[in-house]
Specification:
Strand order of the largest sheet: 1-2-3-4-5-7-10-11
CATH topology: TIM Barrel
Number of domains: 1
Number of helices: 15
Helix content: 25-40%
Radius of gyration: 21 Å
Bound molecules: beta-D-fucopyranose
């Protein structure tokens, strides 16, 4: 087993080790204190969308158990917590009245973090769009971007004084393509035109959100969390390499280029630009304004080959087979070198600010046996990937922190509760939490780390 002490010694003194969650996946209390439904409540209550028709009504009951959960984080010894704020608790209809009780919850949560000496990294949007906004078209409507801007202002005015960092969006790739083109996530749309609208309005909302943060709480480092894909061609052929470049533009470029270069990628635009909504004067300036940090969520590489079908829609690719035989229980290939080449490639293409790994982790579904969860595979996954982050730092990349996904097992979106990503096991019948072997190991790494077994700090 990789010695957590040794691994910890490879990180600089100001590095941050944390754990991550998201509101809809853990909070439950879906009708409490004025919260109204989000698109994920509607989606998960619709048969055939989420495994076992699981929903977020109770989840990990974190809304009621938050103090114990913060104690758990504290006891693990990590120094930061990445969580998301539920828009439908704050402005339950998306626009209109503000729900003070919703803000009160996050007020308590953040004070609880401060009292325990844990840094607060908030995400404004981790996919729980207020359902009422679907009446206007949800993310396919420009008005939703302005509704988001107001929500961002309201949150930052109340909570900004105690946040250590804020992100506008978590993984727009998921809330755009996975939700509006592939139909896997809420609202379950399968339509390129809808997806292209969601794309531009999400990017716009990010920019307007940054504006809001700067106006109301300019001292809080503001960023964006992207699940950039390491796109690897299935073969060395010219066709597959061209396919990989198209896939890069489609899966990464449409988010990175507007934010970090103030434009959309050229091949993407010539293939699909006429189906995009009107890009109004000033939009790209708003989207492209400087941010303080960016977050990378990484789990697995994307391998693609050319789709030779005549007339295949951009990016005209098909999946290529995995190289590593090792897969997690959700079926994702384990391949840590892709994390390294991904970061290297992105810093080559773009002028990026400092980076936090805002999510990384593995799905393994082992249960508690005789009081323990022996999830050696998860531990190995973490050790390998955290080692890659250390390599990147040694090579001079500005990696500032690492957040494990996830603190505890939770509602894994379309997979419901059957897929477990936690460092802590949750028994959904009793809500008993059991720290897994990986959680103990990660805690040792985090605890060792600030104790001075490193040069700086
Ligand atoms: C990411 C999501 C996160 C979690 C992990 C497994 O795409 O941001 O909420 O579901 O995947």
């Amino acid at each position: 087993m990789i010695d957590p002490k040794l691994l910890a010694s490879r990180f600089p003194g100001d590095f941050t080790f944390g754990v991550a969650t998201a509101s809809f996946q853990i909070e439950g209390a879906s009708r409490t204190d004025g919260r109204k439904p989000s698109i994920w409540d509607a989606f998960s209550n619709m048969p055939g969308r989420v495994h076992g028709r699981h929903n977020g009504d109770v989840a990990c009951d974190h809304y009621n158990r938050w103090e114990d959960d913060l104690d758990l984080i504290k006891d693990m010894g990590v120094s930061a917590y990445r969580f998301s704020i539920a828009w439908p608790r704050i402005i339950p209809d998306g626009t209109g009245p503000i729900n003070e009780k919703g803000l009160d919850f996050y007020d308590r949560l953040i004070d609880g973090l401060k009292a325990r000496g844990i840094k607060a990294f908030a995400t404004l949007y981790h996919w729980d769009l207020p359902l009422t906004l679907m009446g206007d078209g949800g993310w396919t409507a420009r008005s939703t971007a302005y509704a988001f801007q107001r929500y961002a202002k309201v949150v930052m005015a109340r909570l900004g004084d105690r946040l250590d960092a804020v992100a506008t969006f978590n993984e727009p790739w998921c809330s755009v393509w996975l939700s509006h083109l592939y139909g896997v996530h809420a609202p379950g749309e399968r339509n390129m035109d809808a997806a292209l609208h969601a794309l531009h309005y999400t990017n716009l909302a990010h920019g307007l959100g940054i504006d809001a943060i700067r106006q109301v709480a300019p001292q809080v480092p503001a960023g964006l969390v992207l699940n950039a894909h390491e796109v690897i061609p299935g073969s060395d052929s010219q066709a597959d390499r061209a396919a990989a470049e198209r896939a890069f533009q489609f899966h990464n470029g449409v988010f990175f280029d507007p934010v970090f270069k103030g434009e959309y990628p050229a091949d993407f635009l010539s293939a699909l630009g006429t189906r995009m909504p009107k890009i109004e004067a000033g939009d790209l300036e708003v989207i492209g304004q400087k941010i303080d940090w960016w977050g990378l969520n990484y789990y697995t590489p994307m391998r693609v080959a050319d789709d030779p079908t005549p007339g295949a829609e951009f990016p005209a690719t098909v999946a290529a087979p995995p190289v590593s035989k090792v897969k997690t229980d959700i079926g994702w290939e384990v391949y840590a070198p892709a994390l390294k080449s991904l970061v290297e490639g992105l810093y080559k293409r773009y002028e990026l600010p400092v980076c936090y790994i805002t999510e990384n982790g593995a799905c393994y579904n082992m249960e508690v046996e005789h009081g323990v969860v022996d999830d050696q595979q998860r531990l190995d996954y973490y050790a390998e990937h955290i080692g890659v982050v250390a390599d990147l730092i040694e090579d001079g990349y500005p990696m500032r922190g690492y957040f494990a996904w996830s603190l505890m097992d939770n509602f894994e979106w379309a997979e419901g509760y059957r897929m477990r990503f936690g460092l802590v096991h949750v028994d959904y019948g009793t809500q008993v939490r059991t720290v897994k072997k990986s959680g103990q190991w990660y805690g040792e790494l985090a605890v060792q780390f600030p104790k001075g077994n490193h040069k700086a700090g």
